[in-house]
Design goal:
Rossmann fold; 9-stranded mixed sheet; globular; transmembrane; transmembrane helix; Alpha/beta hydrolase; membrane
Length: about 200
């Protein structure tokens, strides 16, 4: 499965931290450069790709779509799993819908702190929020059944910088958690979703 990471408007090092904390992989720094290699890391199950543009281009669905075409070529049916953050959610959700309209397969979409961004699509959508207010107010603009919010609340960037240390609440028990607990880390939440969609 191809995992497409769409960052927000922030330092590239934060995305490196997200990849390291969420997937326990070290990033190839050249892959974060706009003109560098687009492949971040590989493990037996996933091909992790990061949208390399920075600044306002992170919100461009057409740039993200071009990136997908460049990386995946004619592999439209290859399952794509989007993880987007902050302002990057704006372009990523539109790009995911366009990719599907072109015949691509979008397995699922995670919006990490995409506050104020309406989310809709013919694929599963999940929100991760840095506090309960962001979770509650964002869900008014669309969300799936399985979402995550930090408890206790953390600052906006911490959710992207250190997903392995941010503890929070799962809003739906259908994912099935260890020891019947609804508390987990942000990175555990991502792993649960990946496992769920890999099994389908």
């Amino acid at each position: 499965m191809d995992i497409i990471i769409c960052p927000g408007i922030h330092e590239p090092e934060l995305t490196e931290s997200f990849i390291s904390g969420c997937f326990n992989l070290n990033c190839d720094r050249a892959a974060l450069h706009p003109r560098g290699d687009r492949k971040l890391a590989q493990n037996p199950a996933h091909n992790i790709l990061i949208f390399p543009e920075q600044g306002v281009l992170t919100v461009s669905p057409f740039k993200i779509l071009q990136f997908l075409h460049n990386c995946l070529k004619d592999r439209l049916q290859s399952p794509v799993f989007f993880i987007s953050f902050s302002a990057g959610v704006v372009g990523a959700i539109i790009a995911a819908r366009l990719w599907q309209l072109l015949g691509g397969t979008v397995t699922a979409f995670i919006a990490v702190d995409g506050w104020g961004v309406p989310l809709w699509g013919d694929f599963p959508i999940h929100r991760m929020s840095h506090d309960y207010f962001t979770h509650w107010s964002s869900s008014l603009l669309g969300s799936g059944h399985n979402n995550f919010y930090a408890e206790p609340a953390v600052d906006h960037l911490s959710l992207w910088r250190s997903p392995q240390t941010v503890q929070g609440v799962l809003t739906d028990q259908s994912l099935g958690l260890y020891q019947n607990s609804d508390r987990l880390s942000a990175s555990d939440f991502v792993h649960l979703l990946l496992k769920r969609y890999e099994e389908k």
